[in-house]
Amino acid sequence: MAKRSPDSDPDGVWRELAEMGLLGLLVPEEYGGAGAGLVEVGVVAEELGRALFAGPYLSTAVLAVNLLAAVDDPAQREAVLPEIAAGRTRVAVAFAEGGSTRPPATPATSAAGSGTALLTGEKRFVLDADTADLLYVLATAEDGSGIFAVDPTGPGVTVEPMTTVDLSRRLCAVRLSGAPATAVGAAGGGVTALTDALDRSAVALLGEQAGAARCAMEMARDYAKTRYQFGRAIGSFQAVKHMCADMLLEAESAVSAARHVAAAAADGSQGWLADLALAQAYCSDAFVFVGATNIQVHGGIGFTWEHPAHRYLRRARSDAQLFGSPSWHRERYLREIGA
């Protein structure tokens, strides 16, 4: 079903995901969801990654739900979570500014006024903002950073798709000029809540990377078994064998890392944030390596637009920067272990 998404009705695919209960996996049962955990989400993410699913699953069913779990706003949860689980509402979370894909310590986007605040600023690399029904924006108010709900079609809001290497992953710039907004949760804890939501949502990103890397590896393996040159399958040549073996090692290691972090996060294991940082760095590099080597195994046909190989490398490059670069995660790992 996920494989149909690029060439079929995206709304129909989204409805099917809702009917299967996949949009409400993280949503508590009291709000119409399954009340499942990060391990289950990781399994789904692996399969969506294999198909390079282009819908807003990560932004809506994972990041937005985790953000609502991190902020103390029962009214907002009651209003939004059932709609997400039913597939009726798509949510985008806007936090990155400038050239960074991490939330800033002090957001430059400002929220002025009490009650209905007015937001001014620009957010970049916002996942699926152009298809969202609701935006959650990280901004700085008088009492510190906070999360604000914004209507993406309302006054003072401009959503512009960004040109990126991965055409299957929608990233947008969101410009706010006195946009009316409603505070979500208590003031002063916006950055903390957003960081916690990103950490837990990264489990799904790891699953996506691992699943896609495994699929790209299998694509190269199958081609090496069926492509004949000089009277024999190219997979019988030692150089190609080595490439396929290296791809298998990286893909399987990425799967192991992603599943370990999902289990550690679900259990709240001590030190799981260090494991997360290391896994995010490793899975990013592994997916890029497998995606590039897949193209190399395919040779000339792997460089063509019509062949799917380039799509996996494009997604690998995009995923590697989505919630912070591999180098940022390595530095975080050192901080987490006290080095």
From TrEMBL:
CDD domains: ACAD
Keyword Thylakoid: no
Cofactor(s) needed: FAD
Residues of the Acyl-CoA dehydrogenase/oxidase C-terminal domain: 188-334
Keyword Iron-sulfur: no
Pfam families: Acyl-CoA_dh_1, Acyl-CoA_dh_N
GO molecular function, one term: acyl-CoA dehydrogenase activity
UniProt entry keywords in alphabetical sequence: FAD, Flavoprotein, Oxidoreductase
Segments forming domain Acyl-CoA dehydrogenase/oxidase N-terminal: 10-87
Record-stated family: Belongs to the acyl-CoA dehydrogenase family.
Name used for this protein in its record: Acyl-CoA dehydrogenase
Source organism (scientific name): Mycolicibacter longobardus
